Each structure stands twice: as C-alpha cells, then as structure tokens.
C-alpha cells in the first residue's frame, strides 16, 4: 500500500455562512446524517460533521467573522455545464460524492424533484472535449453538478470502470506552464 496506509478521506472541512441552513441542506436534501457537533472555544464558531458514506465525513466550520467567498476565486463561478470552472490556487474547486452506477440516474431525478438545480448528466470520456454525447464503453465516469446554499460546487459521480496503467499518460504541468502570474 505504500509508506502510509490511507483508508480514504477522514473529513474535508469547508466553511459555511449559516450552519442551520447547512444542516438542513446536507441532512434533509442530501440525506447525510449529522454525526458530531463542536462549539469552538473562545467564541471562534462551530465545527459540524456529516456522514457522507464509506466511513468518511464532510465537515463545516462556521466562523462569525468569515468573509464571503468570491466566485471565480475561492470557488468556481459556475457549474461546469454553465461556464467558467477555474478557481484560485489553494482553493477547493468542488466536492464529488460517489454513488453506485445503478442508482445514479435516480439520484439525479430525486435531487431535481427536491428543487435542487442540477446540471445535465455528463458522461466523461477520453475524447478531446472530455465529454461524450452518449453513453459508450469509453465513458469512465458519469456525473452531474449542483451548488449548495453557500455556492459550494458539488458533484455526484459514479465510476464505470477500474483504472489501469494506461490511464496515466499525461506529464504533470509545472508553475512555469501557468499563464496567470504567481502571487506567492
């Protein structure tokens, strides 16, 4: 397994503007049980954890003095099907939750029925655009996107095949390849 024995993501910690609204969305809309709440010392805020399956949790901080996020900087300005998906270096672009392929289309329908604005289903393949116009054997993941009450981009995705060594074929880019000036 390597030097470290990773067992998944313990938690991903995000920041919300309204913990009650966040609890409502993640428990009542997405069905994630709230499993732990923490009142931070010295009035710093709150830290709540939701069970997102597989032994992993999604956590939120609420800070009374947190600044608002800036679309296009702290998060993408739009869903991938609507426009610009770039966000700043060091930002969190989106969170993708894994769902079984056999329930994937039903998840899309159920979220839409709950009033969540969902993207069309996107079938991702290795074509130049990265998207297939129809489901075919080269599609490796299906997904759709939606946004939480604080503008956090979320995705439900299902893998359709296992990866092989042939799936790792691109050289990683470096800071020298950037077109935006580095500010650090």
TrEMBL record:
<dbReference type="InterPro" id="IPR004360">
    <property type="entry name" value="Glyas_Fos-R_dOase_dom"/>
</dbReference>
<protein>
    <submittedName>
        <fullName>Putative glyoxalase/bleomycin resistance protein</fullName>
    </submittedName>
</protein>
<dbReference type="Pfam" id="PF00903">
    <property type="entry name" value="Glyoxalase"/>
</dbReference>
<dbReference type="InterPro" id="IPR029068">
    <property type="entry name" value="Glyas_Bleomycin-R_OHBP_Dase"/>
</dbReference>
<dbReference type="InterPro" id="IPR037523">
    <property type="entry name" value="VOC_core"/>
</dbReference>
<feature type="domain" description="VOC">
    <location>
        <begin position="8"/>
        <end position="159"/>
    </location>
</feature>
<dbReference type="InterPro" id="IPR050383">
    <property type="entry name" value="GlyoxalaseI/FosfomycinResist"/>
</dbReference>
């Amino acid at each position: 397994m390597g030097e470290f024995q990773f067992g998944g993501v313990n938690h991903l910690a995000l920041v919300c503007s309204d913990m009650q609204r966040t609890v409502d969305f993640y428990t009542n809309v997405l069905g994630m049980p709230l499993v732990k709440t923490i009142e931070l010392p010295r009035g710093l805020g709150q830290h709540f954890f939701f069970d997102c399956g597989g032994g992993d949790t999604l956590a939120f901080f609420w800070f009374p003095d947190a600044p608002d996020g800036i679309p296009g900087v702290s998060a993408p300005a739009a869903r991938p099907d609507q426009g610009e998906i770039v966000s700043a270096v060091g930002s969190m672009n989106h969170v993708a939750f894994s769902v079984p392929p056999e329930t994937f289309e039903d998840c899309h329908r159920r979220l839409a029925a709950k009033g969540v604005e969902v993207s069309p289903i996107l079938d991702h393949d290795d074509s130049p655009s990265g998207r297939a116009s129809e489901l075919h054997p080269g599609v490796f993941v299906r997904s759709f996107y939606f946004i939480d009450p604080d503008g956090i981009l979320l995705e439900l995705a299902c893998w359709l095949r296992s990866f092989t060594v042939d799936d790792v074929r691109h050289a990683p880019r470096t800071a020298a390849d950037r077109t935006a000036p580095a500010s650090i």
